[in-house]
Amino acid sequence: MTSTYVGTDHIPVKRKAIGQAMILIATILLVALFITQTLHKAGSIAAGFDNWRPVLYAYLIWSIALCWGITLIKGERGQRALFVLPAFLFTIAMVIFPLIFSVYISLHDWNLSAFEGQKFNGIDNFIALIGNTYYWNSMLNMVYYLIAILFEYAIAFGLALLLNAQIVARKFFRVVFLMPLMLSPVAVSWMLGKSLMEYRFGPAATLARQLGWESPAFFSTPEIARLSIMILDAWTFIPFMMIMLLAGLQALPKEVNEAARIDGANNWQHFWEITFPLMLPVSITATVIRIIFKLKLADIVINVTSGGPGGATDTVTSFIFREYRDRSNVGYGTMMAVVFLIIIIIMMTALLNLLNRWMNKVT
Amino acid sequence: MKNKKIINRRQFVKDASTVVAGASAIAAGSAAGVGLFPKSASAANVRRDILRIPGVGKGSPTDSDWQKVGALCLNPTKARVSKGEFDGVELTFMGLNNQNLHNFLFRGFLKPWEKYTGAKIKWIDLAQADYNARLQQSIATKTVDFDILEMGAPFEGDVCGKGLASEMPNWVKEQIEMDDYVGYLKAPVGTWNGKTYRISIDGDCHNFNYRADYFKDAGLAAAWKAEGHKGAWGVPKTWQQVQEVSKFLKGKKDPTFGGDAVGYLDPCKGWGGFGFYFLASRATAYAKHPNDPAWLFDADTMKPRVNNPAWVRAIQDVIDVLPSQPANQLNADPGTTAFQQFLAGTGSMVSWWGDVGSMAKTSDGSVVGDVVGFDILPGSDDVYNSQTGKWDTLPGGPNYAPNMAYIGWGVYVMARVDSNSKKRKAAWSAAAHLGGKDISLWASAYPSGFQPYRNSHFNIDEWVNAGYDRGFITSYLESESNSYNHPNAAIEPRIPGIFQYYSVAEDELSKIFAGKFDAQTGADNIAAAWEKLTDQIGRKKQLQLYRASLGLS
Predict the structure, then answer these.
(1) Does B236 share its domain with B338?
(2) Does B538 touch chain A (CB under 8 A)?
(3) What is the rounded distance in angstroms from the CA atom of residue B229 to the CA atom of residue B251?
(4) Which fold has domain A128-362?
(5) Which value does ipTM take for this structure?
(6) Is pTM, for the whole model, over 0.90?
(7) CB A245 within 8 A of CB A157
(8) Which of A223, B43, B196, B464 makes an SS bond possible with B168, Cβ 3.0 to 4.6 Å?
(9) For A81-90, how does the pLDDT look when each residue is reduced to its tens digit (9 = 90+)?
(10) Do B345 and B255 have their domain in common?
(11) Are the beta carbons of A54 and A30 closer than 8 angstroms?
(12) Which candidate from B132, B327, B330 shows the least CB-CB separation from A308?
């Protein structure tokens, strides 16, 4: 037993030294490879590798050495650190580093077709973005799309109330209403946007004609096209809000409801005075998550309208997609993505703060 | 009721294969042929036999059809490669995955080749819209992970100019019979610094597809006369006439299918840059002067011409006839205009690549096979002269300038195979098989994504023997050959990033067509964006390449 004991007080010096040496050697290897490869890529030295893969391997070795070394140095405390450390190192590799690298790329003029490759251009991309009418047009569209969430919320709440009531075939309807959420937005684009709403043969267009709309073109005028995209997106994600609200409704304390009924509250009073306030925390959670989903809206737009007509349905993400994919404008496209991320972080932080204050007041 | 034997496709292929198998068995002196299509089918018979797979009017070809065609066209490979010679070789092929076109065909064509040579092919399938970005990324990040590439000539500046392609061996030139290419696909297309890199498998140009029934209809002719239009009712020969006919048809009825009559179909929605070709097809007759090879940029400065009076006129033409087009036209991309509208019976005129013609009679989705006609793109009564800044009326009549849009797909072998002689030979052999003379005839005749591009493709008797109506196929092939051989053809510049120019233009055009800008303002915006792009990519080199693509020193 003593040979495997790694308690803090009984770690031999030699063992600590081995752990420290492991970490040191792995760190030197990682730093040396990183510097060598950076200089090689910058053209300063001839020695180096064709790609950055060896540096990645060095990072993996360093991560293993760090985890192992810490257990050797710190004993049991080191073992406890292993519950978090691998996840932390993974996050650095998969989230922090790409984010930093994105900021680095966004400060470059890098068109994939450019003869001179990438060139550092400071904040030129940001300045260009400030004057880019397409970007701000898509940002304005995002505001419209976000406003639509209010209507989605109202419908989702209505459906949740319905499915929470004692209706016939309740389980069946719960499954049916959830089905759009199971579909990929790309599939929704084709099934609804390009088939059901197809101008000549689409059932929705045919129905609209029978109802008196002579030319049922769902994607040809800016307002109708934007509304159609909102409907397609809502159709996909209302079930998501609905299922969250339904879970909230089912968790409401029955005593409060029964007390309200005994006190003679009618249906509206029961909803407005009891159910709605009690559901506020769930409602806010569902809405905030929905806002985050909405800010990523792109696939339906790309597939159905390509952002048109005249940019009326463009989202920030679909515009970034075009700038990056069709125009290979990597530096500028990345700057747009970084700025959008910063705007989202600021907006969501402010929104959550406001909601917290409001909730504190209300409750 | 006529006593007519109804033959379905399965029966037809069975019958055809029985005939071929019997004939070849006799030729080989053997009691039984090996496989469905034996090796010894003569070269002349091969062309006849492959055109019967599955047979004109017998529906869309399937994977088994493509494999049969691939097997029948293996003789040139067998003459240069011994059985199993490429055992252990694995090649990666990158191309398009458009439904039942491009890579779908290549897979079928190459299966018999793989079986015979022993090589294996891995596939990288890309959607049309993803193709440009994937290729550009591979080039820019030096991560070419494919050995064989299906690519359009506009990218040659990016690939061949950067030393990423393998030079074509002489035996390949012989195998594919390069001399058979139509003139405009010969050097400098496919070459870079005097070296040949490309096996052409396509010969792109836009032609003019029209509904002959509209222009033979007595009712429409009478209405045309009654409304006081000039000249007889007939197929428009100029864009001025296209405009007049499109406006005239609004409110009339389709003479064959009975719905609303529609004139010209403009794609107004972007298509990853490819949508710009359709404005270009309207503009070339205005912008491509016979005395000036340049039409998209000034050849001395790379200054865009897209906002000159010729291009603005083409944009204005679209705006003017939009009210006469289907109500959803703003959301119609080129795929919609060709396949969901024209081939499905909506609209009477559309410019497109040769796919419309090759699919009109062979695709399950087409209803216009018996009523479609073809011509080169319409001309213009006058043409803009960029040197003088005036519109010229040519003494010989209207100015025609067929748009050689995309210059066709080709197959390229990447330089990364050069270090391994066995792999290099295998890659070129696979590419040569796809670009073979006979296989290309089949690809021209059936839905494939490719159109005729060899002089031998214009032998009308071959097509008639295959089951095509002589009038139909003559009209189709003449529209192609007359476009290729036109002295004032507008050749697309093979400059890096050309689709970036087109993509920027698509965004601005979408705004123009949606009524946010007038034609001139929108065109000025496109020109400004293009200038910026040229500076970003590198004006000096772009200018050099542009001049080279125009044949200027």
Answers:
(1) yes
(2) yes
(3) 16
(4) MetI-like fold (1.10.3720)
(5) 0.85
(6) no
(7) yes
(8) B196
(9) 999 999 999 9
(10) yes
(11) no
(12) B330
